[in-house]
Design brief:
D-Maltodextrin-Binding Protein, domain 2, alpha+beta, 2 domains, single chain, about 190 residues, globular
Length: about 190
Amino acid sequence: MERKDGTIGYTLQVIVPKDSPIKTIADLKGKRVAHVSPSSNSGDTAPRVLFKAQGIEPGKDYEIIYSGKHDNSIMGVVNKDYDAAPIASSVLDRMVARGMLKREDLRVIYESAPFPRTAFGVAHDLTPELQEKIKQAFLTFDFVNSKLGKEFKDEKAFKPIDYKRDWVDIRTIQKETGISYTHEGLAKLKKD
């Protein structure tokens, strides 16, 4: 689904207080960083994988404190209970819109590529003609005037995405963590 501003999904953002000396992921070394919970993509799993490319290993190079919710991590950074926090950009957007904090209370020192929220695929073994008809049904769907449009007020349409480009971080996380999106793999995730 594409937002009215043309973006898709959400990003992992690392936030710090506006006056923090922390400028990069490398500056997190030795700090107290709020992660959301072990089951959170942007609040735990993604940082554990993506920060390695920045030379930082969460839990080894900085102390992880689980906050339980993105909201708790965000307000903990605003109140300087934590030095930093990896959070979902969409949660920060909602909290700012509700007046819970001002965006200028924080600085974003890192932002990932977008993680697509909901995506639909077409089976590879359908005829090319049927694949194209399905694709066109999504791309011409009157999203704004549909029940979906009433529920997802910030969205305007379905937008085509590219598996290799738009899912690169998700595929990297999957490879690094060994997550398997099979029935067995998903059942294991549910238990964890």
